[in-house]
Design goal:
Largest sheet: 7 strands, mixed
CATH architecture of one domain: 3-Layer(aba) Sandwich
Shape: globular
Distance between the termini: 99 Å
Radius of gyration: 28 Å
Strand content: 5-15%
Length: 510
């Protein structure tokens, strides 16, 4: 064997490189193929055209990364695996043996004991295609237990008493809401989020919208569920012409740059001219639109079929989308008993709802008994922080800490500013800025588009059909990784809703 030389020639170095590549490549081959396959699957997830295709690739990627082992393993530091398995066994045993009394006593106790842990975000970040099989099995058995109690004759409960019990359970459990933020043209992304949820039967009954989100929410909640399939496939939102700047005289009079007429015409093509009460009757969904007051002593409002039943939805959308400086504030309109359109609170003017209540969680909790919030967030000043905080590890923690620090500093700065302008007439402006910058913009589940500078360029442009299709598909793709989490975390509420609906139908039979 030749001895190594201190100074090797270029030919020797080239030969060693050739030998290393030639003899090492076969040993690296399987690893390289696996890495290439993983990259291919990750690209496929980002480019998927349907949820079924996305889920198929997610399962394959989990297998390659051995994340399917994590799903099959019952162990977790979030819940007690042995206790959860015992609960599944007891629920199934009571159901199969027909032990109605034992099941109706144990099921609420089990849900109360387990749901907090099983809703932990950690359980839905361990794999791409879903959470642990044991968690899925628990929710499946709990839903089957609810269905069994609702549909099985119970000698101790009449149908009316059964209905009352299930309504009490529904009230105690709470509701899920979808909250659509503002965000100008970026708000078309909400269409994709709603479409993805609707296609999987997961679109909540309670939907809230602010500014652009109010327009999307209204378009959904003024249509029957059977109409949504064809409607989601139609690009009906693009206005016939772009929003136009007003003349200098009109702009000075109205203190706004854009003519509201074109926006109203666009809304008239997208949204049926219904009141909030009429929209609830048509769709069965609870539409909530946030509006901000222009008068200092007025409070922000949530308009819905209970708080403003006779107010026209289109006028509420105009108000919620009236960004100060761009559009003039709006006087809401209502429908009288004789069918006339008249002013509602004639002395009040209303503007952009996202200024004071982009995602009004506290008010929805109080008004609609909502305790689970799915937020679709497209506000441009929020997206960078939400995108960073949706990652894992140190990057997520850093983004969270940075966001909290900036929010705190902004709040302190604006609070000082409010004191400085006290008595100058600018207090309401500073207060609105404080609310806009420091409010909580996330939810229990927050869905958002990828942080892409190109989206910002298109933010205030009139979207072409191709651009709109891109927004919708991006919304769907951002929602698909959350679908199984949403499916499980809303399973009990949806089961209770279904049980109540079936009991009512049975009562209405002749």
């Amino acid at each position: 064997m030749s001895q190594p030389r201190l100074f090797a020639s270029r030919r020797d170095e080239g030969q060693r490189t050739h030998d290393r590549v030639h003899y090492s490549y076969p040993r690296r081959g399987p690893h390289m193929k696996r890495a290439m396959k993983i990259r291919t699957l990750r690209r496929a997830l980002k480019r998927a055209q349907s949820y079924s295709a996305w889920l198929r690739n997610a399962h394959e990627l989990d297998t390659l990364l051995e994340l399917d082992r994590w799903r099959r393993s019952p162990d977790s530091n979030v819940y007690n695996a042995k206790s959860l398995a015992e609960h599944i066994s007891r629920l199934k045993g009571y159901r199969l043996s027909g032990s109605i009394g034992a099941l109706q006593e144990f099921l609420p106790e089990s849900l109360y004991q387990n749901l907090s842990a099983l809703n932990s975000e950690t359980l839905y970040r361990g794999a791409h295609a879903g959470t642990k099989d044991l968690v899925v099995d628990y929710f499946k058995e709990a839903v089957e237990g609810i269905d069994y109690l609702a549909d099985t004759d119970n000698p101790s409960w009449s149908e009316q008493e059964k209905l009352n019990r299930f309504r009490q359970a529904q009230e105690s459990f709470g509701r899920t809401a979808l909250l659509l933020s503002g965000g100008a043209t970026l708000g078309y992304y909400h269409l994709g989020v709603a479409k993805a949820l609707w296609q999987e039967g997961l679109l909540p009954q309670v939907i809230s919208g602010s500014s652009m989100g109010a327009i999307i929410a209204s378009s959904i909640c003024t249509r029957a569920n059977s109409q949504l399939g064809s409607w989601f496939d139609e690009a009906i939102f693009a206005p016939g012409k772009s929003l136009e700047l007003q003349g200098l005289l009109d702009a000075a009079k109205t203190r706004s740059l854009l003519d509201q007429t074109v926006l109203r015409e666009s809304l008239g093509r997208a949204i049926p001219d219904l009141t909030f009460h009429e929209s609830f009757t048509v769709s069965g969904r609870v539409l909530n639109i946030t509006v901000s007051p222009t008068r200092g002593r007025q409070k922000p409002r949530i308009l819905n079929h209970r708080t403003a039943p006779d107010v026209y939805v289109i006028d509420a959308c105009l108000a919620s989308a009236a960004v100060p400086g761009l559009f003039k504030p709006v006087t809401l309109k209502k429908k009288t008993r004789s069918g006339r359109r008249v002013d509602y609170l004639a002395s009040e003017r209303w503007s952009d709802g996202s200024l004071t209540g982009d995602v009004p969680k506290k008010r929805l909790s109080r008004l609609q008994n909502v305790n689970h919030f799915i937020v679709s967030q497209t506000n441009p000043h929020v997206l960078p922080f939400i995108h960073a905080s949706s990652g894992l590890g140190p990057a997520r923690r850093l983004a969270t800490v940075t966001g909290e620090f900036l929010r705190g500093q902004t709040k302190a700065f604006l609070a000082t500013g409010r004191q400085l302008v006290d008595g100058s007439g600018l207090e309401s402006l500073v207060k609105s800025a404080e609310s806009f910058m420091t409010q909580d913009y996330g939810g229990d589940i927050t869905i958002h588009p990828s942080f892409d500078a190109d989206l910002y360029i298109r933010m205030f442009s009139n979207p072409s059909p191709d651009v709109m299709a891109r927004f919708i598909l991006e919304g769907q793709r951002s929602t698909w990784p959350m679908v199984e989490q949403i499916r499980l975390q809303t399973a009990i509420g949806r089961a209770l809703n279904g049980a109540i609906a079936r009991i009512i139908r049975r009562q209405q039979r002749p």
